[in-house]
Amino acid sequence: MREQMSHRERILAAIRHEPTDRVPMDYWGVGEITQKLMDRFGVKDMLGLSQALDLDKIMGVGAPSKDPARNGFWNVPTKRIPLPDGSGWYDEPEEYPLARFETIDEIEAGYKWPDPDDFDYSGIKAACERIHEAGYAIDGGYVSLTYFYEIVRGTEQMLVDFASEPELAEYILQRMQETAGEYAHRILESGGGLIDMTQVTDDLGTQSGLMMSPAMVDHFLGKYFDENVAAARAYGARVFHHDDGAITQMIPWIVGKGCEILNPLQWRLPGWNLTELKRKWGDKLCFHGGIDNQYVLPFGGVDEVKAEVRACVDALWLPDHTGYILAPCHNAQAITPVENIVAMYECCREYRA
Known about the structure:
Structural class: alpha/beta
Number of strands: 9
Largest sheet: 7 strands, parallel
Radius of gyration: 20 Å
Order of helices and strands: HHHEEEHHEHHHEHEHEHEHHEH
Strand order of the largest sheet: 1-4-5-6-7-8-9
Helix content: 40-55%
């Protein structure tokens, strides 16, 4: 019988491929569904919700802007798009700041890149100490160059640049790495070795396959993965890799680059097989996510949610009780019934196959 672990111990053991006393459970959700859950349990923050649901929530730390009017690291103006059923909204870019430029010279003359000095890192160490005191693991730092590229130039233009304007694409990626990579580096440094994991990530997939060829991924992103993984290791942080879609073709590359945690496991898309995933990569990767939030969580019944939980636990945690952290596949959406989320975690806690 394994002794009961703390939330942080459970998460770190899963990443190290050591047996855990139960399946670790993390939470990702949009603000609207998170608020509904908080209202349900009468709590006011994520710590209270994690305690109410007995979650092993990985808590995030970051550096806020010194300018409260700034809109994220890239300061991209956004507009709110309401959901058709009135359950919430999404913030979408009003414009892509680099979309109007066609050359490197035009960007140099007309665009001001973010400056890591514009952010306040002074509270990170104390925040890490409080989180560890409460018994939770910490995530800090985030570099996703394709996602950043899409924010400032648009998805379609990114793909056009990669295919037909490689010199321009290389320049933009390099400048992004200089700014966002340095921002992530300072977060890790400010954590003083207390940050447990950092995100070195990209969205390379669609619902049916890769967004670009593996060769193109390696050409444009490979050296930056090497740099950011090395930075994580210098501070003792594990490497969390988030990658939406049908991306199984990239798993050997992801592993080869030194990523240790793979999320979100959209295993109902082409190419995924959870049993094979565990067999082939279970000694190299800790799997995070797996619970479908495109159909099962928002539209399925409680019984379907429980079946989803059992399928993921059977394939990814058993038989050795290692290497899996259960969570929704990306953020649980605003339309998701609260009962389904509660059932997901209750089933996971109780399931002892």
